[in-house]
Specification:
The protein is an alpha/beta fold and 368 residues long. The chain folds into 2 domains: 177 residues, ATPase, nucleotide binding domain (Nucleotidyltransferase, domain 5, 2-Layer Sandwich); 176 residues, 2-Layer Sandwich (Nucleotidyltransferase, domain 5). Helices cover 39% and strands 21% of the residues. It contains 14 helices and 12 strands. The protein starts with a strand and ends with a strand.
Length: 368
């Protein structure tokens, strides 16, 4: 009998909700069906305002929380309608929610995700596991990144040191040593797509630089790149995590406002910034790794993938597709897996990654 879970994920780019129906009957997850669901335009605008700590964050966040929950539920119901699977056959939904603020180094550390899980449960008829980051933070961790435990379960190899790279709005790596008794580690390396996407919206009136073609047509400005690489985040030792509250248009403006360089070359330099900071992190923390396995939306940026390979000589760079999971659906699958871990009372974090004092089960259950 199938062991079905649904994973729901919306990342820092907020380009929509990824919904994946996953069967965990065998040792390797089997993705049965997937669905991409866009946010309504008005809700997307409200979320962008909330990320900037503007109204309606201080007046109407509860209403946005409900609206996001309703949208996550709609994504789930469309996913199920496309497959013919009934809610009764799904054990639980793992919902990451939409991150509004991630402040792991605040005096009172927190990470806020919205998307009311009770709404999702009520509208779908399926139990929902959500609020995955809180338990790790309460155990002294940063609540991020959370996918390394899934990466270890699916991609670790007994004879080869590997690094898994997820390129969403923010880039994060998971370092998987070949020895079973060696600790897994990982952290956010810095910007993934977020700065490139922001620059494309400003200069191309496009949500992204499709395929990285614009970045490929310009020149790297070494002086600008060096200035950005001097940011303290890149030199900080792990564990560390970050988000759009740090790497955002204001961060970029401090380097470009008084800098005489054309927009095309800035995009090329931002692409190199992502590739360089990822490669520097791998070389400093996983210098013996010979294989980099990439997932997330950044795999579609051909220029970024090219620059990653150029910055990592001797390392094979490929995507998770070579291991049976589409790079576009790894994170949604991971949150389905985290829901399964929670239901079974098993840990979902890796203390060496997040900095938590102990391994803990992640998530809170909302019953339908």
């Amino acid at each position: 009998m199938a062991e079905l879970f649904i994973g729901l994920m919306s990342g820092t780019s907020m380009d929509g909700i990824d919904a994946a129906l996953v069967d965990f009957t065998s040792s390797r997850p089997d993705i049965i069906s997937t669905h991409s669901h866009k946010y309504p335009a008005a809700l997307h605008q409200q979320l962008e305002a909330a990320l900037r700590l503007e109204a309606p964050l201080n007046t109407d966040l509860t209403a946005i929380d409900v609206a996001v929950g309703e949208t996550f539920a709609a994504a789930t119901n469309e996913l199920l309608s496309n497959t013919g699977v009934t809610p009764a056959n799904v054990t639980a939904i793992g919902s990451h929610g939409q991150t509004i603020r991630h402040e792991p180094r605040a005096p009172e550390p927190y990470s806020l995700q919205i998307g009311n899980p009770d709404i999702i449960a009520r509208h779908t008829g399926i139990d929902v596991v959500a609020d995955f980051r809180r338990a790790d933070i309460e155990a002294g961790g940063q609540g991020a990144p959370l996918v390394p435990a899934f990466h270890q379960a699916v991609f670790a190899n007994e004879t080869e040191n590997r690094v898994i790279l997820n390129i969403g709005g923010i880039a994060n790596i998971t370092i998987l040593p070949s020895g079973a008794d060696l600790p897994v580690s990982g952290f956010d390396t810095g910007p993934g797509n977020t700065l490139m996407d922001s620059w494309a919206r400003t200069n191309l009136q496009s949500p992204m630089d499709a395929n990285g073609d614009w970045a490929a047509s310009g020149q790297i400005d070494d002086a600008l790149l060096d200035r950005m690489l001097a940011d303290a985040y890149f030199r900080a030792a792990p564990p560390k995590s970050t988000g759009r509250e740090y790497f955002n248009p204001d961060w970029l403006l401090q380097y470009t406002a008084d800098y005489d360089i054309n927009a095309n070359n800035i995009q090329t330099t931002l692409c190199e910034l992502t590739a360089r900071t990822v490669s520097m992190a791998i070389q400093s923390q996983a210098g013996t790794a010979k294989r980099l396995i990439v997932c997330g939306g950044g795999v579609h940026n051909r220029q970024l993938m090219k620059r990653l390979a150029a910055n990592l000589p001797g390392v094979t760079v490929e995507t998770t597709a070579a291991y049976g999971i589409s790079p576009d659906w790894v994170e949604a699958t991971a949150f389905a897996w985290l829901a399964k871990q929670c239901i079974e009372g098993k840990p979902g974090n890796i203390p060496a990654v997040t900095g938590a004092a102990r391994a803990v089960s992640l998530g809170q259950l909302s019953c339908h």
